[in-house]
Design goal:
Number of helices: 6
Structural class: alpha+beta
Distance between the termini: 31 Å
Order of helices and strands: HHEHEHEHHE
Strand order of the largest sheet: 1-2-4-3
Number of strands: 4
Helix content: 25-40%
Radius of gyration: 17 Å
CATH superfamily: NADH Oxidase
Strand content: 5-15%
Number of domains: 1
CATH topology: NADH Oxidase
Largest sheet: 4 strands, antiparallel
Length: 191
C-alpha cells in the first residue's frame, strides 16, 4: 500500500451504527484482531485484552445495558445517516444490533491502559474499513461491563475484574447505508 492509499483509507473511514443481519467471517475477525494486537502500546507491555462476542443474545443484552447506563445529553446531535442513542431515544440497544462486539480491557493499575485501548481501536476500525465492513467505537464499556451481566461474562473467561477494566467496545458488521464524508477544517497550527 502506498502512502496515498493509506491516507485515503484514513480519510474515508466513518462510524456506522446500522448493520445487516449477517455475521462477519472468521478471517475478517482474525485480521481485525491482529490489527488491534499490533497497535502501539506504552512500554511494549501488550497488556490489552480483547473479548469478542458474536452471540446475538449476549450482544443484545450488552446493548440494552449500555443504553441504560448512557448519559444522554439532550439537544446534542451525532448523525442523520447513522443515528446514535443521542439522536434517537427509540433506539433500544446502544450497540446498535452489531453482529460482532469487541470489548477492549486494560490493567486498572496502568496509567496508559486507556490510551493503549484507543490506539488499538483505531487500528481495528481501519482494518474493518479496509475489509469493507462498518465499525464504531463505543465508550460506555466500563459501565456496561461493570454490570452483573458484564462481570459474569468476564468471569466466565477468567478475566480478573479486580485487575482489568473495560474501556471501549468496537462494534463491527456489514453496514447499512452510508455516512457522509465531510471535508475537515484545518485545526493545524505551525511555528
Amino acid at each position: 500500500m502506498n502512502p496515498n492509499e493509506l491516507l485515503e483509507l484514513i480519510k474515508t473511514r466513518r462510524s456506522y451504527r446500522t448493520f445487516e443481519d449477517k455475521q462477519i467471517n472468521d478471517q475478517q475477525l482474525d485480521m481485525i484482531l491482529e490489527a488491534g494486537l499490533y497497535a502501539p502500546n506504552a512500554g511494549g507491555r501488550q497488556s490489552i485484552l480483547f473479548l469478542v462476542t458474536q452471540d446475538k443474545q449476549i450482544n443484545e443484552q450488552l446493548g440494552k445495558i449500555s443504553r441504560q447506563v448512557a448519559h444522554v445529553v439532550k439537544g446534542r446531535y451525532v448523525s442523520k445517516e447513522q443515528p446514535s442513542i443521542i439522536d434517537n431515544p427509540d433506539i433500544k440497544s446502544a450497540l446498535y444490533g452489531a453482529p460482532t462486539v469487541i470489548t477492549l480491557l486494560g490493567p486498572k493499575d496502568f496509567i496508559f491502559s486507556e490510551a493503549d485501548c484507543c490506539v488499538a481501536c483505531q487500528n481495528m476500525m481501519l482494518m474493518a474499513h479496509a475489509l469493507g465492513l462498518g465499525s464504531c467505537m463505543i465508550s460506555r464499556a466500563a459501565l456496561t461491563m461493570n454490570s452483573d451481566f458484564g462481570k459474569a461474562l468476564l468471569e466466565k473467561k477468567e478475566i480478573d475484574t479486580k485487575k482489568y477494566r473495560a474501556f471501549y467496545h468496537i462494534i463491527v458488521g456489514y453496514q447499512k447505508g452510508k455516512t457522509a464524508i465531510k471535508e475537515r477544517k484545518s485545526r493545524i497550527y505551525k511555528y
